[in-house]
Design goal:
It catalyses: ATP + protein L-histidine = ADP + protein N-phospho-L-histidine. It is an enzyme of class 2 (transferase). By secondary structure, this protein is of the alpha+beta class. It has 3 domains: 6-171, no CATH class; 215-305; 308-472, Heat Shock Protein 90 (2-Layer Sandwich), CATH 3.30.565.10. It has 12 helices and 12 strands. The strands form 3 sheets. Strands 2-1-5-4-3 form a 5-stranded mixed beta sheet. The chain has a 5-stranded mixed beta sheet with strand order 7-9-10-12-11. It is rod-shaped and about 160 Å long. 20% of the residues are buried.
Length: 473
């Protein structure tokens, strides 16, 4: 058992605390032992005195020395009937160093006297006063040496410390076994689960099942279970996205070839003699061109990356008009959805035209499909403006609004779709594209009266702002 383990430190601390507790017990115990020792000497001296008083005077001289030796005292004084009488006497080897009256001895004073006796190694003579037992007088007084008392106290204290040490070791062993069973075994189970889960985090069978009896450990296992479920779910979702990216990348390769062929034929439509075909041809060419570009960047999205935006200045009104025309033609119910635009004709913004088209197209398509899902007519409004720091574009609708669950996971892939058959990627793509511009896409309102999204585009990208600050320095 090592000290750098929980069980080792637990056992060491248990022994230390038990010993400290025994030390606090030792002082009163030594004090009590000293008082018992002195009272026993008083009793022996009283018995010796009574034995001497009961004999003849001729026998008293022969017994006195033996009685004092057996009592362990130098002399004995009795007070009876208010008369003080020296009953037993022998030569005293030195002056009396201290007097102790056991009749007036408090707890604190008794502990202090015990410490003085214990740490003073000199063999001195002390006077002890007490009350005789069985009311055999008013007072008994003896003189005695301190060396036998000190040796008896040291022997008693040593035996008490040895017993305390044995008790502390036994307590530490029992507590250690209890800690092993109640604490360390569940902790090792959690550690084993973490190691197993780390080897295959996508395997749901390795998720821990809380079963600890201790409340704290069960809470820890519950939190670990929740974390592991979240991680496993995220890994599976990322794996599906990676697989989707690979699949779409393969499809886009072939689709790009098909669209390239269609683009060639669309170019030839510009030379048609039919005026309607001639007017529709540029729009068809632009749509196919954007589809080809989208196919070429599909692999980047499959890697959770988007190409850096190519920033150029262009008129926003023309771009919004293209989006409106495309969505009007794609509507399932003609005339059900009305588009209203409030774009200043002279408003010029700096952004990637194709990426911004994708953003506005996604927002408009979601709004149109939401309105069509109600079976009631509705309106989609697209407005824009500018400030000193950038441009803003507002896309609002009069649809049914987003459910609370959809709002909680609005810009997360595969979770924000409210339409049957939807992938939930539209808003994710739109938010990523706007972030690539250094801007932000926000849901500003969603209730029973409709939803409203706001796009904020800065005039300068983050890199340009940083370069501007360095130039200013």
């Amino acid at each position: 058992m090592r000290l750098n383990t929980i069980s080792g430190r637990f056992a060491a601390l248990t022994i230390i605390f038990v010993l400290l507790a025994e030390l606090f017990i030792l002082l009163p115990a030594l004090s009590s032992f000293r008082l018992d020792y002195l009272e026993s000497r008083l009793e022996r001296a009283q018995i010796a005195s009574l034995a001497l008083l009961a004999t003849d005077e001729t026998l008293a001289s022969d017994l006195e020395s033996e009685l004092l030796q057996n009592a362990g005292v130098f002399n004995v004084v009795l007070r009876r009937d208010d008369v003080r009488q020296l009953v037993l006497a022998s030569p005293i080897p030195g002056p009396i160093a201290a007097t102790y009256d056991l009749r007036q001895n408090g707890v604190a004073q008794a502990i202090d006297d015990a410490l003085v006796t214990l740490f003073d190694a000199r063999n001195e003579v002390i006077r002890v006063i007490g009350a005789p037992v069985n009311q055999a007088g008013q007072l008994i007084e003896i003189t005695m040496p301190t060396q036998p008392l000190r040796e008896a106290m040291l022997d008693y204290g040593l035996r008490l410390l040895l017993l305390s040490a044995a008790f502390s070791v036994l307590t530490a062993i029992l507590l250690n076994l209890a800690a092993q069973r109640l604490i360390l075994v569940p902790i090792r189970r959690v550690i084993t689960n973490l190691s197993t889960y780390a080897s295959a985090p996508d395997d749901a069978r390795h998720i821990i099942r809380p079963d600890a009896r201790l409340v704290e450990l069960r809470e820890a296992e519950t939190a670990l279970e929740s974390m592991q479920k979240t991680v496993t779910s995220s890994l599976k979702q990322k794996e599906r996205m990676a697989q989707l990216g690979q699949a779409v990348a393969k499809i886009s390769h072939d689709l790009r070839n098909i669209l390239t062929t269609a683009q060639i034929f669309a170019d030839r439509l510009e030379f048609s003699a039919d005026p309607k075909v001639t007017r529709a041809a540029p729009k068809l060419v632009n749509s196919i061109t954007r589809a080809v570009t989208l196919c070429e960047t599909t692999l980047a999205f499959g890697k959770a990356e988007e190409p850096a935006p190519s920033l150029n200045r262009f008129g926003l009104a023309g771009l919004v008009q293209e989006v409106v025309e495309a969505e009007s033609l794609a509507g399932e119910a003609a005339g059900q959805v009305e588009f209203l635009t409030d774009i200043p004709a002279a408003l010029m913004i700096r952004a990637d035209r194709d990426q911004l088209y994708r953003v506005l197209s996604n927002l408009s398509r979601n709004a149109r499909q939401a309105i069509e899902g109600t079976g009631q007519p509705g309106t989609i409004e697209i407005g824009a403006g500018e400030s000193d720091t950038g441009w803003w574009i507002r896309v609002g609708d009069t649809g049914p609004g987003l459910p609370a669950k959809a709002r909680d996971f609005l810009f997360q892939p595969f979770t924000s779709s409210t339409r049957k058959g939807g992938t939930g990627l539209g808003l994710t793509i739109a938010a990523d594209l706007i972030r690539g511009h250094g801007g932000q896409l926000q849901l500003t309102r969603s209730d029973e009266e409709g939803s409203e999204f706001m796009i904020h585009l800065p005039r300068a990208t983050l890199d340009e702002a940083a370069r501007g600050e360095m130039t200013a320095l």
